[in-house]
């Protein structure tokens, strides 16, 4: 039983590392022609801190463009994957 208590945190760290690696692979944003710096470095974090819908359009691109539409689908996927970390 004491081994379980000692091993459980390590197993959780490995699982969280694997999940974050999956997030990085599955949630890659397409670069825009006109990037909004410094938020362009990490669009996923920038979306969580966006103050208005105009900020979201600046980060992801025009929703009518191909890049903007793809980035919006990626953002939805990113938010659903990120929900695992909210309870932690």
Task: Describe what this molecule looks like in 3D.
The structure is a single chain. 64% of the residues lie in helices and 0% in strands. By secondary structure, it is mainly α. The chain has one domain. It is elongated, with a radius of gyration of 17 Å. The two termini are 24 Å apart.
- Main sheet, how many strands, which sense, barrel? none
Amino-to-carboxy terminus distance: 24 Å
Number of helices: 4
Q: Approximately how much helix is present in the residues? A: 55-70%
Helix-strand makeup class = mainly alpha
Which shape, going by the Cα principal axes? elongated
Residue runs with pLDDT of under 50 for 5 or more positions: none
Mean pLDDT: 81
Number of domains as seen in the coordinates: 1
Q: Strand content of the residues, in percent?
A: under 5%
Following the backbone from N to C, one meets helices and strands in this order, namely HHHH
User: What is the number of beta strands?
Assistant: 0
Supply Rg. 17 Å
Topology overview:
Elements: H1 2-26, H2 43-48, H3 53-60, H4 66-82
Gist of the model:
Helices cover 64% and strands 0% of the residues. The protein has 88 residues and is mostly helical.
Write out key terms for the chains shown.
88 residues; mainly alpha
